[in-house]
Amino acid sequence: xxxxxxxxxxxxxxxxxxxxxxxxxxxxxxxxxxxxxxxxxxxxxxxxxxxxxxxxxxxxxxxxxxxxxxxxxxxxxxxxxxxxxxxxxxxxxxxxxxxxxxxxxxxxxxxxxxxxxxxxxxxxxxxxxxxxxxxxxxxxxxxxxxxxxxxxxx
Length: 154
Known about the structure:
Blueprint: H1 10-17, H2 32-48, H3 51-62, H4 65-71, H5 73-153
């Protein structure tokens, strides 16, 4: 007699076939135009989102610094806000976002492996529980017979 019959959730089989989701997996792949546009965007993002580009923008911006200094305080403020910060910080922020995306991919992969390991361990615990329950299940008919016989003898 079986006390418990485990039915595996269908998501477990699907999860075993999957792999962790990465940022690159979210890119459109449906048409040649979308793939081309995505590749161009990725290349531009990688170039502009590098510290070397930030350094190049900073050097480029320094070309107009003497004219900003000659223009006075308001021109300097305008140069810093509209020229230097926008170009240089753009690249630096993109570098930071790339680092954060890589960290998010790594966390997602670790979580995926943790969940897979947990599912594996739970399956072992269920197997162990079935082994432990088997001797008790074989006693159930005898207990039922004792109950029935004691009820009729009263």
